[in-house]
Amino acid sequence: MDLGLKNRHALVLASSRGLGLGVAEALAAEGGRVMLTGRDETALAEAAATINARGAGQADWLTVDLSAPDFATCLAAEVQERFGGVDILVNNTGGPKPGPAREITAADLLTQAQAMVASVIELTGLLLPGMCAQGWGRVLTIASSGVEQPIPNLSLSNTLRGALVGWNKTLATEVAGEGVTCNMLLPGRIHTARVDQLDGAAAERQGKPVEEVRAASRASIPAGRYGTVEEFGAVGAFLCSDPASYVTGSMMRCDGGMIRSV
């Protein structure tokens, strides 16, 4: 299937590694031009070099900090100058520290909300006019399975990513008639460094070996295994594609059947 992504310009947040990089690699494999972003300059440069060596699409990179108050305005201006506009925006952020809901503080909530919610919404608002003007655009927001089935001990993530669900659905209805789709992609247990971190935290909390925790996690997934970043990236690329032009306002799961809700 031709996804119609050749020479499309894609800005992918938090894409030096993990899920963001997986989506960026999948877009580039379809001939897209991707702008990688993150805080780790070395990791970004290495990721871009790997993508460019494959020869399908092209990759460049920018160092950014999603928690900075001027993040959105600075990034939008820089991308406009270097890219000449954006066809695809992949919203992705790191996850907050684990912890129970009854221990959330106002300070933690506001700090994380800036990076995980406010920055995403502001950047999207700045880039949307260009997509609407050309009659084609894709906004893909990576969230978490926790927005459909709250994950124990990830209360901040469940809370803040849940806020993006209502925003995405509302935005999708506003711009659908202008050729722009807005969807969310929900990872289950995709094997990344973040999942390793969470498994380690769970093992410490439960007083068990980490492999025992992982075995129990795999047993809870109908597919019987963790997903790969490549599998996740492929779903993301499809949602950003021409053939997915009638899919909007949706939440797509990539979870091996883990989420038990209908």
Automatic annotation (TrEMBL):
Q: What Pfam families does this protein's entry cite?
A: adh_short_C2
Annotated SUPFAM superfamilies:
NAD(P)-binding Rossmann-fold domains (SSF51735)
Which top class of enzyme applies to this chain? Answer: oxidoreductase
Q: Which UniProt keywords apply?
A: Oxidoreductase
Q: Which Gene3D superfamilies match?
A: NAD(P)-binding Rossmann-like Domain
Molecular-function annotations in GO: 3-oxoacyl-[acyl-carrier-protein] reductase (NADPH) activity
- EC number(s) for this protein? 1.1.1.100
Family from the record: Belongs to the short-chain dehydrogenases/reductases (SDR) family.
Q: Any idea what this protein is called?
A: 3-oxoacyl-[acyl-carrier-protein] reductase FabG
